[in-house]
Structures are given as C-alpha cells and as structure tokens.
Fold these 4 entries.
Entry 1:
Amino acid sequence: MFLASMFGHKETKQVDNYMAGAVYAGRRPLFDRSVLVASVLLLLLSVVMIYTASIGVLAAKVDGDTFFFVRKQLMFILLGGILSTLVLTVPMQIWARLSKRYLIWFAILLLAATYFMGSEINGAKRWLNLGFFNLQSTELLKLVWILYLGGYFYRHIKKMESWAGVVRPLFFLGVILGFIYLQDDFGSVVVVSFVTIVLFFISGLSIKFCFTVAVLLGGPFFAYIIMTSPYRVARILNYLEPWKDEFGKSYQLLNSFMAIGRGDLTGQGLGESLFKLAYLPEPHTDFILSIWVEETGFVGAMLVLGLEFFLIFKMSWLGLRHLKTGKILTGEIALGISMWFLAQVFINVGSITGLIPPKGLTLPLLSYGGSSLVMMMAAIAVYLRISYEERMGLYTEYLAELKSVRRMERRQALNKMNEALALAQKEADAQKNASATAEAKPYASTVVFKGTNPNKGTSSVKLKPDATQAKGKIKELDSNSKVESKLAPKPAPKEDHNYGRSYLG
C-alpha cells in the first residue's frame, strides 16, 4: 500500500492544488519523481561507463570476463534497491527516536569492529566481511552520522547558540574521526567534517563560531594526519608540481589530464578510450569520469555533472525549505545528504582535474563500488521518504480543507433551499388565504330583487352580492322594485313525528 501511494494516489485526480501553492492537474505522485528519474539515469549511465572503462586489458585480467565488473555493479544496484525499498517504509520519526541513543553507538561499534576484525584490501583495513558482501563501514557511517545529527538538532535546537549545544556532538565526532583515521581513510574524514560544519552553521551557530571550531579543533587534527603520513605529504608536493615526477607519483593524475583533453567537445566515441588500456590504473573506480570525458567529451561531462548537481540542488532546496518552516529533523537530514553528495562530487572531480590533491573518493551513483553505491541509494531513499511525508501532509491538509469547504457549501445550499421552501410555503399560504377570502364573500348573502313590470308582470331575481352586478340589476328593474335581502337562509322545516306533518318555523 505504501509503494502504491508513492507512485500515485487514487484520489489525487481530484486534487488541483495541494503542493506548496502550485497548481496540479490530473494524477500526481506523492513523492519527488524528478529525483528518482535522475537517480535511475545515473545508475544506468554507471553501468555503461563501467562497461566501457573496464573492457579490454583490465577486464581480461579477471578470467577474461569482459562483463565481470558490469555484473557486480548490477548486483550492487539490486542490493541497493532492496535496501532502499526497506528505507522508504521507515517514518522519519523512527529515525528521530533511534538517533537519541542507538544510532551513534551503532556507528562507533561498527567502526571499532572494522578496526579489530575487518579485512585489509590494498593496505587499508576498511571492510567488514559479511559473507556475501564486503561492507565499508565508513560509507554506512556517513548516512548514520547525518541521521544522528538531524535527530540531535531536532531535540536540542535551542541549545545550538552556545558551546553547551555542541559539546556532545563534537565529542562523538572526535571519536568517529579517530576510528576513520585508524582505517587510513582521509577522504571520509574530510567529508564527515565538512558535513558536520555545514549542519552546525545551519542549526544556528554563527560563522565565527564554526570557523573557530574548524581552526582550533580541526586544524591541528588535519595537520597531524598529513604530517605523520609521508605519502600524503608527497601527494601535496606532486599536486603543486605534477610534471616533476610524471612517471612516478604524478603518473595517474597526468594521464587523467591527457584523457580529459583528448575528449574535446564530443569525445572519441564509446569504447574508443586509449587511456583505459593500463594507462589509468583502475579506471572504473575513482577515475571513471576521466574515461567518460575522453569517450563522450564535454557534452558527456555536462550530462553527468548536470544530473549530479540536480540531485544536490533538489535535496538542498527541500532541506532549506523545511528548516525555514521549522521542520528541523527532516531539514537537517535532507541538507546533510546533499552536502555529502556535494563533497564527494567536488573531491572526485577536483582530484581528476588537478584542482585539489588527489584523493580516492567515488563519484556518487556512478563509480564502481559496493558500499558507496548501496549507501548512497539508501540516502536517496531517505530523501524520497522526506518528500513523501511532506507531500502527504500537504495532501491531507488539502483534503481536510476541501472537505470543510464542501461541508460549508452543502450547509449554505441547504440553508438556501430551506429559505426558498419557507418563502414558497409563505406565498402558498398567502394565496390560499386570499382565495379563501375571495370564495367566502360571494356566498355570504343572497339578494332577491322583486318588482312589477307592466309588460312582463311580477319578476324576482336572486344575485350574489357583487357590487357592480347588483347596481346593474337595480337599474334594469322597475323603479318601484322592492329589494329584499336575505342575509341568512331560513332554518330547515321541523317535522312533527307525532302528527305526521311539517311546521315552517
């Protein structure tokens, strides 16, 4: 029933204006269909992009199966679809209750379990082996952290103007970032920190306060992470002078530059990339956009980035609208998800174009990867749930208002009908009284005209007492006529049963 209502309510055909004053006509779904369509398009593009980027030498290394990564990506999409369907059925108030205690401790225990029992891949211990799926805990953490902050601000929004309101989330943030640092995932540290600062600012903290927190707390922490990792220092140096070590640390970045430049306006055509042939290591993951631009050019890049920024804009707009109307929980969550997407798009695009030092983060809904793809699909489902509850609330209010208006219209119509009936009854009574009066006057008395006419002898005429008629008959009769008026009929004769004859009274 829930899914049926999501994809079109049967009563929406009667709705003309139920969504924020906009005019709707016909059948309308109770969710943001544009975001769903954009997400599906990105997922379809991801399948195409992964196929074109992984075909060839890279795919041949996996038992010669050119569809290996495509099949796995489709499996991830299916898993994400199942999880998203389940997330759609969870009301936002449930997340608010869970965020009070359970979500944050679940996140901490998950990170701790990954550190102590996780699987190490490519030198980093970031994954929990679930048997059928390797879960990257930091990707799940991003969504859980946003849900926690939304619930916290929802309960403590009045405290967010001072240090008293931020002590607890900052404490948990420090614990979480510490575990992420131990997993050697600097990109996730940046994303989580950025989302937190933005949500702090939106919740009511001043720019000065947020800047102070970022500098005093975040500055030393980030400096320590960078300075204690020689390869991070090398990345920054190579970013500043990429051509200094073109066959070493800068090899991947410079090949990305050349792949993008080769794309020109319309690209070389799908499957015609040269740099995916071992020039760009693992081109189907972090550098998948470079291969896509090489094959589809500037047009293809604008298509992909346009869809990404459309999702970010829609989620940000919904979040800001909810915050403006006092819906703290859903506003913070929607805005947090949009900032998560924005951070990863910026870092991914900035890394492949040389705007920022290279850092491995997936492009939302496009790059190959299980945990990132599944959790971002779940985040889209959370947004759709928020959109559904908003529209359902407005729709319910509209129906209530519509019923009230119709009830008032029926009452007014009934009153008018009663007034019309009363007036008609009054007129009918008046006409009946007039008719009764008019009928009663002619039969009130009988006039008998008697007179002697020399030609015709004695005559007698009985008339009803109509004034005009009476005057005319008086003139016709002889001037010596005698008028006798009988105002009442004579009583009926009485019979004497003893004598057998009648007496006239």
Entry 2:
Amino acid sequence: MSASREKKKRQEFTASGASDPKNSRAAEEAAVRRSNRLYSGIFIALAVVAVGLLVYNSGIIGRNQTAVTIDGEKYTVPQTAYYYQQAYQNFMNTYGGYASLFGLDTSKPLKDQAYSEDQSWDEFFKEQAVDNMRLVHAAKTAAKEEGIVLDGEELEAYNENLEAFKSAAAQQGYSYKAYLTAIYGPTMTPSIYEACSQDSFLASKYSSEYSEKNFVYSDEEIQAYYEENKNTYDLVDGGYVTVSGAPEAKTDAEGNAIEATEEEKEAAMAQAKETAQQILDAYNAGQDLESAATSVDDTASYNVSEELSYSSSTYGDWLFDESRRSGDAEILEGDSVYYVAVFNGRQRQEALDYNVRHILITAESLELAEGEEATEEQLTAKAQEILDSWDGTEDGFAALANENSKDPGSNTTGGLYENVPKGQMISEFQNWCYEPGRKAGDTGIVYNASTGAHIMYFVGYGDTQYWHYACENAMVNSAMNEWQQSLIDSVTAETDEGGMKSVG
C-alpha cells in the first residue's frame, strides 16, 4: 500500500461518536469509521456549534479545580469541559435532527433528561468524556515516551483547525476568548483550549503511526475476510413483492379495535398465499416483477433493484443463499405476510475508488441582501461563471478551487479528494463521478440542497475496488477498537464530585 493511500486510512483517535449511543464500544467504532478525513471533523464542528447550547450558567468557577485524575495526573474543570463538549458535539454530528428519537431534547438541560433508568444525558456525556480523556492520556504518554511530537502534516492540521475556530468566532460576532467561553464555560481560556487540542492531535498522530505499523493486511488476508463475510459486501440483482396476510382491521360501534379471530387470520393468510401464487404465475409467464405485482394486486409492495443489499429477513436470507441461481423465483412465508422473491444474479461490489477535484459554491459565495436565501439558480449560475473562467488545465482548476471553494476540507489543496470509495460522498457528487463514460478531465456542475453547487473536475479512477477497501477498513477498525480499549484499560481514572458538578 502506498504511503499516500495509507495516510488516507489514518484513524481519528479522540472522537466519541456513536452508531448506537447506548453502547460506548459502538461509539468508538463509529469514530474510527471516520477514517478518510484525518483530524478534521470534531474540531471544526466545535467551531460552528450553536453558541450557548451548553453554556455554563453557574458563574465563574475556579480554573484550577480538579475534575478528573488519571494515573495521578490532575485534569481541571475546563480541561474536562473540552472533552465533554467533544463527546456531546460528536453525538450531535452523528444524529443531528434525530436526537429526539433517543429521548434527547436539546432545548432542555441535559441534567434533567434521562438517558437510561439510572443515568442522565449529562452523566452519559461525562462518562464518554472521561473515557476519551483516558484514551488521549494513554496515547499522548506513549507518544512522548517514544519521542513522537506534533510536527509536519499534523501540526499544519492543528493550526488550520485553530484558524477555522477563530474564523467561526468572528463570523458569529465573538472574540476568540468570548467564543471559547460561550461554548465551554467561563473557566476556559485560549491556552487551556489549545493545550487540549494539541494533546488530542498528538494522540491522533500516535494512533495513526501505530495503525500504519501494526494493522496492515495482505491481499490474501483481505480476500479471506471477504469470503467469510460475503453477504456484507455483495449485492443482489433481484427483488421481492410483499403481500400482506393480516386480516382487515375492524372496529366496534364505539370505534374500538376488534381483534381478529384465528379463523380470520388463517383466511387472510390463505388469501395472501393465493395472491402471491398469482403474482408468481404472472412473473413466470413473462411479466417483470413490478408489472406482475400490480397486475394482480395494486396494494402489494415491491422492491426490485440490481443492487439489493443484504438484510437478515425471510427474503434477505433467501436472496443471499449461496445455492441461489439466476432465474430462481419462489413464494416465501413470513410473519403475517407472503413474499414473492426473484433472483437474477449476485455480484461483488467492485466499483473503483476515484480521484476528483471540486469547487463548493454556497450562499457565502454570493452577494445577497440581508435575510435573502440563496436559490439553486443563483448558486449554479455562480458556479457556471467560475467554470467559464477556467483555463482548461487541471492546475488552473486547482487554483480556482483554492480561490473560490467554500469546502474547508479541500480549499487549500486545489479541491482534491483522493482514493474516494463508493458511498462516501453525497449522491449527486458520487453519481456524477460514476456516470458511464466518465473520463479524466471531464467537468460539470451538480447541486445538492444541503451543501450547495459543486463544480466538478474528474481526475480519474483508482485501482481499489470497493469490496477490497471496505473489507480492509473493517479489519483495521476491529483491530483499532481492541487496541484503543486496551489503552483505556491501561490507565485508571478518578472523578472529583465537586469538580464534575461544574462540567456540563
């Protein structure tokens, strides 16, 4: 594996993001999966967090008050607040508007909301913060013992994030110090914040270097992993129709639901099976699955695709059975439902990674009146204006990106993203890159309502297929999770009740 490609696989070390917020180990796994954009996410995210969301309201607290002690090293209230906000913001970045589904109301104090039967949301984020502090403490200690320092690419990344934070402060009408206070509380100072950030970046560097040395897998090992986990990385060309076998809902005179009898349930399932057989007969007679379904029962739901992913279900297990052969079609019985399943073929996800440059045009790119919102037409027109000024060379496009792009992840590198695997970018961006006939040097403009207008320049496809990338990434993630947990377990932490009351 090349050095440049290996760098793209470095793992963010300090985040506490969660695929399941009630599982701390899963939180670490979600953080590790953010592997392709080293050091960027959480720090910049903190720069744009809504000011006052978690602002301290208890007054000025002693800056030197201890909140956590890790292997004898004391961490103060503002230091702990740094990691607390990191844990909170990482959760919000992961779930955004879905936080309410987990019972979190961002308009109310976290201390007054139950995360579980015996823990508030405030306590949950404090727990996450302490775990991250243990992780960073152990890693930075090991880094110093091995003579690893923050320099080069990592130091540049740290400085860029610091400048992004200061820029966000200015945009919000705050001084740097006042912005820190608004986000972290009255005890936070620039020196404390920068020291915490440097510790996190140093821990990240140590983690990256450790991963590069110890979690490297041969093509044979990756192939073996794939063979053991085919369902995760394969796609099926096929589909299924769902025919409900639930009895028709009935109510009494007062509008109360009447539970169906066993005879009614059996009759409904029998009717569903008959309908499913008619759909299968129509399919076998030459109709496509969708037409067969609608011609028999326009209430039947269907799902047909050339790229069906595996799901553990009656139809999913059938479609991904190793014995399946092209042309197989069968009626399957589920819980109060019948499926008509059709199998056309199975393939490994072999889409190549790609290299692309882009220029992101947002509302900030336009001269808008106060209160005016940017429209798609305005953004794409601005994008076209910039593209029209392009000199036709890749270097010229890179210069335009550095000058005009609002993407902080690429507007200092000529808009370049390298070795991008399928599934990483927004659909409009990705679909443009994978359009049939796409070739090096192609340009275009795509629009996404959430991000803005993207001026595209296609550099070319890479040589790594998605299944290979995904398998390797999963193997590295698993190894990283185990190693990170061992680091956490290698240190002990004690919390000070008085100090922790001032955090959050």
Entry 3:
Amino acid sequence: MKLTYLKFLKYGIDLAPLGLEQRAGDETYFCTPKGAKVIGWAGVDGIHFCFIRGFGEMVFAVSPMNVVPDYVHPLARNFPDFLSLLLACGDSAALEQAWQWNFEQFQAFLADNPPTEEQKTVLARISRQTGLSPIEEPWQYLHELQDTFAYSKIKYTEDFYDLDLNPDAPQQPSEWKVFYDGNFWGHSGRGKAGKEVAIRKEFDWAGRHWLIPSIYLCGKGLVVDFCMQVAPSDIRAFMEKWDLYPETESLREFTQEQRMQIDLDSPMNLDFHAILHLNGKALNPDNGCGTAYNPCLPPEYSVGDEARVAVEHYGLDPNFGWMIWRSAYPWATKRKPEIRSLSLTIIQDPVSIPGPHFQVRCPGDTAVFYHGGAEHILTVQEYEAQAMDWSHVPDTGLERPSHYVAMSYTVTPELPDGVLTIADCNDGDRPRQAPSVPGQPVAAACAMVMGIIGGADGPVTIILYGPDKQGKLHAACSSLHFEPVEQVEWRMVFHEKQFEDTVIDLFP
C-alpha cells in the first residue's frame, strides 16, 4: 500500500531534527493558504510546511518572511517524495530555499551544511522503516515542480489581502481580460487585453454540444475560446468506473493500457486542433491552454476559480461540466486586418487505442489481427536481443539498464502510416543507484525518466520505413532491463480519429 502521511505518523518518527517540529494548536500566518494542514515547523521565521486542501498530498513550504509573490512554494508531489527529498538533503532548509537558488548554489549549501549525527539517525530510521531512498536529483525535481506549478490556484484567507497585515498584498483579480500571450491564470509581456467580440456560436460535434462564446481581437492576433459541455451523469459514471475520487485518486496505480483506456473513457477528454480561416487564409494557432469545470467535485477540490470565472463570464450552465480551450492565432498581415469572413475547421487528434497482445520468438513468426474489419498479418523479419551502449552518456552515478529486444516486421496488407505502433507491455527497469562498495544496497527506483527506448513513461516505439520486397519494414524495441530479456509480450496500439472534421462559420 502506498505510504501516506497518516501511515507515516504511526511509525512515531520525530522529524524535528530535520526542521519539521510538531506544535499544538492551529497557529497560522497571513500567508498560510486556505485549507492548509500544517505538518511541521522549521523553528525560524515562522516557516512551516503543509498540505493544502484540493492538492492531495502535495507538500508546500510557507515562508512569511519572504515577499510577494514568494510566500508559498510546492516542494513535493506527494509525501513519499517529500521524505525522499529529506533523505537526499538531510534537512528541510535546503528544500525551503531551493526556489531562489541555481544548481551550484544549492550544491554549495548542501556541502556547507552536512547532516548532524542526530539528523543521520533520523534519516536512517526513515529509510529503514519506509524503504524509501534519496531522490537522485533533488534540485532538478524541485525546480521542475515549481516551474510548472500554477501558483494562482492557491487561495488565501482575507488576512492575506488585508493591507494592514500584508502591505504588499496583491490586488484580487476582478475584471475579465484576455491576452494574446496569456492564459486563464494570467499573462506575460506588455501586450494590451484583446477586444471581446461576442459570437455565441453553438454547434454539435464529436457527440458533444459546443459553444464559441467570444473571440478577442488583440495586437498580435485573434484569440478563440472553445467550450465543450459535458453531462454530469457522464462524469459521475466515469469517476465510479475508475474509482477516481479526490480522496482515492492519489492512491491508484494504473498500467499503460489502463491509462490509455482512461483517456478514451473520460467524457472531459477530447484532443483536437482547429485551423482558423480568416478572409480565406488558413491560420494555425501558436499557443493555447485549457481549464476544466467539474460540478461533481466538492468545492474544496475544485481545480481552481479560473474555470468558475469563465463559466460565470460566459453565462454557461453551472450544472454541467465544461472543458474550455483557448487558442491564439497570429495575424497573417503586418496590421490587424478587416474581418470579412471567419470560419474554423475543427480536427480531432488521433487517439491511442490498445489492441491485442502477442508473443513472437524468431524471424518468420506471425501474429494475426483485425483492423477495420479486415484481417492483417504481422510477420517478424528480424528478432534479436541487444544491449544499449551508454558510454557516450555523461556519468551521473546511476546504473542504467541496457538489455532490450529489437524487432523488425512487416504488415500484410499494409496499414496507412502512423495507424499501428508496437509497444512492450512491460515498463522495464528504471535507472538505479550504483553501489559504491560491494554488497551495498541499491535503490529500487529513482526519479530519473529515460526517453531513449523505455522508462517511466512507457516504451517508445521506433518506426522505420524502407524499401523491401515484402513491403515496408517497421521496427520496434522493447523496454530496457538490467538482465537479458528472454521473452517480450508485445501490445499493438492503433492511432485513429473517431470523428470527422467539421467546419464552423463564425462570420459567413
């Protein structure tokens, strides 16, 4: 069972030597977020660590002595990762301050502040009782999390906006504005907000009801908001099928195949792109973003107020779910053109559909499958165990898996390019900590993700095309393992569009 904060408390490990002192009462500061559950205090400058309602077991640091907007920073995606960061750094101080440091400064702080003997004792107990190991690249982990986190999702109490308590309090957003270089949470650059032009174009496509409420005329181009309506009954059925509730979602682990099926089943998931036709000229978007409004979640688990604000601004029915996409299209001319005609071609992106599994062992082996009602035969041309050469990769102190199986094959009759890929059903082995001395235990896993052949995100299928008397030659590689691979279970994955393109006239 996955380690949680509540389960960890049962171990009775005092984290005070690591900068997480327990205190009685509900002491908070003006910058303590709404819904915060404090799990420890640094003992200096009011710094404390917490979970925030609506973010699962993501761990945050709150630093009242910082200045706007740097009071709160995420430290770990979940509590086990937080413990692994402590194991890597020896204390919470480096984690709390990492947001302001580059890599060299972070490493220098660790070198200048090694763990004390008391801290080593606590760290050893954590490792022994939880089975966790240090995160290999803590600075990279922290900055990846913090660089991609939407800070606007954190909500604060009224004290945060009280100028007497917080003279640097930011103004709460009130006016609806849309920028070409922005998103639902804010914008960058000095561009002015676009002029909103109400469209209120309704249509049905891909089994959903859609609304394009407005377009925005900006200096750099035109912005379009797409709103897809989702029945709450469909959302609830999906959540029940996959047990995707806020209190249980973080505890679920899914296979690659299950994740593909979840994407297919989700009523609030539809990948598409739209080509804008302005005065007869086709324009592709150069940036975009999206947000979701789910009426089936309790308010404390809402993704953020930005979705609710959009629903309210456009007068959308709050009893339905809404997926809202925003696309920005650059002007094709140096000056903002006069709009004589405006239309959209909406195109679904291919979805990944898990297909049958099969096993082969040598050239000449075949696998029969059906696609589009027709029978096809996959024939193995080459099948060989190989080893990855890592000598050209800089040494990071990690031991990398190198063994894999390479397969080339043909398909008869041939399928269109891109329709079929072959993937290993096994995720493979992750890089691990290389032992420094014989017999030293090694880490079972690490945070590093390999994207060459296989890794945490699943195996990567390599497609090759070339002339062959038997047809096009394709190739696939299995995931990487530390030991030679004797048998691979392969999975076919089909990539298909489920809905035809549609053309929507905005200004005929």
Entry 4:
Amino acid sequence: MYTEQDIDLLKQKGVSTEQIESQLENFKKGFPFLEIVSAARVGNGILKIDDKEEKIYLNKWSEFLQSHKTVTKFVPASGAASRMFKDLLSFYYSDENTPTTDFMKTFFGRIHEFAFFPPLNNLCTEVYGKSIDQLCEEDRYKDVLKVLLLDEGKNYSNKPKGLLLFHSYPEGNRTPLGEHLTEGVFYAKNADNVVNIHFTVSEEHKEMFELLTAARKLNYELKLDSKFLVSFSVQKPSTDTIAVDMNNEPFREKDGTLLFRPGGHGALIENLNDINSDVIFIKNIDNVVPDRLKENEAHYKKLLAGVLVTMQERAHDYLEKLDSGDFNSEYLNEMLSFTQNELSIHNSAEFTSEDDLKKYLKEKLDRPFRVCGMVKNEGEPGGGPFIVKNIDGTASLQILESSQINKDDKRSIDLFNNGSHFNPVDVVCGVKCYQNNKFDLTKYVDTNTGFISLKSKDGKELKALELPGLWNGAMSNWNTIFVEVPVSTFNPVKTVNDLLRPEHK
C-alpha cells in the first residue's frame, strides 16, 4: 500500500505506519459522541469562591511563588490573523467601493483609535503621498486596506495575531506578545524575579517572533524590574494527520504524494509535555488587556493557581499515605469523598475490598491536575463545562465543543445549548506527581475524542482528522476543577473591531 516515497515522507515526519493505520480506522469507524450526564453549574461541578476562601487561595499562591518551584506561561500563538480581518478582506475583494455594512462604517469611522493607525498612516503617506483621511475623502478605502492587509504593505492579514499592534500607550504601542510578557509579571514571577513564558508558533512566523522578542525584551525587563525567559516551539510534524478521500482512502496530491494536515490545537499536548515546570498557565494569544485592567485579570489567575496548588497538595498527601500504608478505612473514605466532592468524579460502582478501593483512589489521584476558569454564558461561541460519562463507567468534568455532541440527540443538544457557563481558555495546570516527577501528558489523552471535518484540495473533497482538542479530549483523563470567574477576565480579539471595545482602550 505504501510506496518508497510514502515511507520516506513518514520518516521525515516521524510518523509510523501503525499511526496511519489507526487514523484510517478512525475515518472508517468515526468517533463516538460523548454521553453528557449534566451541564456543570455552580453547586454542580463549578466552584463559586467566597471572599474568605479567596484570601486563603491567594496567600497559597503567593507562598508557592516564593518556594523556588517553576512556573511557566504557555501561550498558543500559531494562528494567522486572516479571520480577524475577514470582513475587511470581503469588502476589499467585493465590487463595492465605499463601506455599506455597519462593520465597515465603524472600522473607517473610528480608524484613528486603532493602535496600528500611526504606522499605517505613515505608510499610506509614503506609498500614495496622502494620509488615510485624504484617501478616505477620495473614496480610496481599498487603497488603505491594501496597505494594511496585503504583502505590499503591513501584511496584517497574513501575520499571526501575536505580532499585530493591539493597544496604545504613550511610550509606544504594544502587541499581544508584549502584553503577555507584561501580564506574566503580575502572577507568574518567581522568587528570583524571573517570568518563564513559552509561545507555540508556526514555523513560518517563528523567526519574526524571535526578532520582536529580541528587540523588545530588554526594555520590558528594565521597565518591569523582571527577567524574561522566553521560548518558542512549533507544532510537531509527527502530530500531522493523514487526509483521506470520500472513500476513506489516503488522499494523494497530483504528484502522488500523501496529503497530511495539521492535527489542530490538540497537537499542542506534545509541546505542553515538553515543558518541565511545576505549574503551567494556559491562555490564548488574543485574550489580553491593557495595563489598566491587568490587576483584575491577575487577581483571578492567582486565585485559580491557589486552588490548583491547594487541591494538588491534598491529593499528594493522600498518595503518600496510600504508598506508605499509613491509613485506616475511615481515611480511605475521606479520600473517596475528596474525589467525589472536590474533584467531581462520580462513581456508582461498589468496591469489593479495601485493596479494590485503594487501587481506584491511586488511579484517580495520581494524575495531572487542571483548574479552569469558567465564565457565565452570555452567548459567546465556544465549548463549555459538562459532567460526562467516561469509558471506565465513572463520570467527570470535561470541556466539550459542539463537534462532540450528537446532533440527533435532543437531550444532548438542549444540555449543550442551555449550559450556564462557557470556556474562555483560562487554565492552570499541575503536571508533576507527588514524587516530583513530570507526568507523561500524552498518556492521559482520550483518543476517542477526535473529530472529522470536510475540506477540499485542488477542487477535490477530502476528510481531515483533528486530534482531541488541547483542553478537551487531550486533557480528558486529568483531574479537573472548574471555578467561576467574571466575564471581565475574557477579552478576546476575534475581529479587528473588537479592538474598539472599551476593554481594549
């Protein structure tokens, strides 16, 4: 079935034929839908922390930062900004010459407010001999967009979000990369004044990220009295997945080459796994705020981290007891209660012996931990928190996307659509066991939670396979705690006009 050319390509990518066969089987069989037990709500899987508890957790995190443990900020930043400028590109390639939609009228009517306006205005003056205002007076809106979006100018539509100017400051305007460095100081700076931050980027843009970091890092260090250790990685070629035709046979390009596609953000579990850190914060590249709002944001980051180290410490204490044999049946029941009430792991099975219970507790406690901030649902797109049935018969907290829901099952659809909270990707991870060894995170992925999507190449339809999402199936077998956080912590920039919202001013 495989040619010499195929074998060479697999070797280059670090992909085995067994992996390919497994992926082809997934295309043929499909993936099972997840069985939702209930939506997670406050009092049912989501913690609402009161002022007294809050103080305890914040102190816990403050103590942890002074303990010489390692803390890292992990920022997925590989996505291009093309979707952010979708409306602008639509107008640029349309037959219209003047803005007709509310979106376009807002963009041009408030163009002075964007952080990228000054350099864009300078470049327009350089290219056309006229300012943006003069060009707009002459209905030359598309000339402005050409300089902003295309490779003849700033090329914003093809650059990653992390490198675009988002926020205005008197001392110079700032990119998301700069904002992530700055915010790290507020909650991730260790006892040695160091902030570790890791960006996952595309191979194409890695050098641009490195150059901008090299150019700006010293300024940030001096201004913020901190040292930044910044690292980058790219999605591994070994996580690319094979594409198939509509008959589930490997899709071949015109020259006969097998077609592989990126496996989606779930592939980043490999990058996360390579980070040797006690605690890792995960947050998307576009969810940043200007300095005036950072204290509020940092407050809840520290809160989530305090919950994480508190809960993980308890689990580690229990595991030590289990390994030493220093426990009685009452203590075992306390551990079981912890898994049920604090970790929301529901198990209806009867334990036939103490050894049986001990084995179960070890299995459930000795896993990576994550604490996820959850925001009240205000109609934002994205996944949400649910209690879901697992293969072993237990039920636990998971973050589900719509692609994981059976569209023919009314109950599942209703539960998904009427969830009280959604996932803003605000995660803090504990990835070391109680003996201080790092977990192999790839062993805690539920491989049954990938999904198949329809794409095309060269005018031919194909099926693509996405790996279990990073905070979905890739973390399915982690211990999970959901904590309610305010919507003020969630300020993503999905379209360019989001930068005009008060939160970004």
